Amino acid sequence: MFTGIIQAVGKVAEVVPSNDDARLLIDATTLDLSDVALGDSIACNGVCLTVVALSPQGFSVDVSAETFRCTVGFPAGTLVNLEKALRLADRLGGHLVSGHVDGVGTVVSFAPVGDCFELVIRAPGDIARFIVTKGSVTVNGVSLTVNRVAGDEFSINLIPHTLANTNLHILATGSHVNLEIDMMARYAERILNYQESK
Predict the structure, then answer these.
(1) Does residue 34 share a domain with residue 116?
(2) Quick one: 117 and 75 in the same domain?
(3) What would the pLDDT profile of 59-99 be if each residue is shown by its tens digit?
(4) The pTM is what?
């Protein structure tokens, strides 16, 4: 589990393909890895990945074909938002994030509004219905609050701190982003559908 509060922005330093899978070397930059062990989870752009090797430069993870299929992927040179797994004693500054991407959204617009930026994203239809005004959504691993919803599009205001401490500042119209809906919405749908199917 994660909080969606980004701890560092790293970079995909190397991609070693293995059939449809791949091993990635992540340059962790300022992320403190002193308490990270093999087998620990680190969210990379909102994708929960398992550390399989540690190095002075960062850490390595294995990425399956299924993960590549349902995310924006990890081309070499990509900047990635990094967050170590939540510990029970940690503050929950964002919201509960599983690190399981629900779909890929497309940036419709990204424009300044005063000191902030308004980010408008089109979500895939099968997950758009779970996104609600003033609810939480995870974009590339970042916990954010939805301001407005119109059909399958939703908007978010990004404050300067978020832009300075995540990779969201590199987005532009047409960019693709990993989306994870609020897990509470998923559970609510399951409860409703289960009751209706009885």
Answers:
(1) no
(2) no
(3) 999 999 999 999 999 999 999 999 999 877 677 777 888 99
(4) 0.92
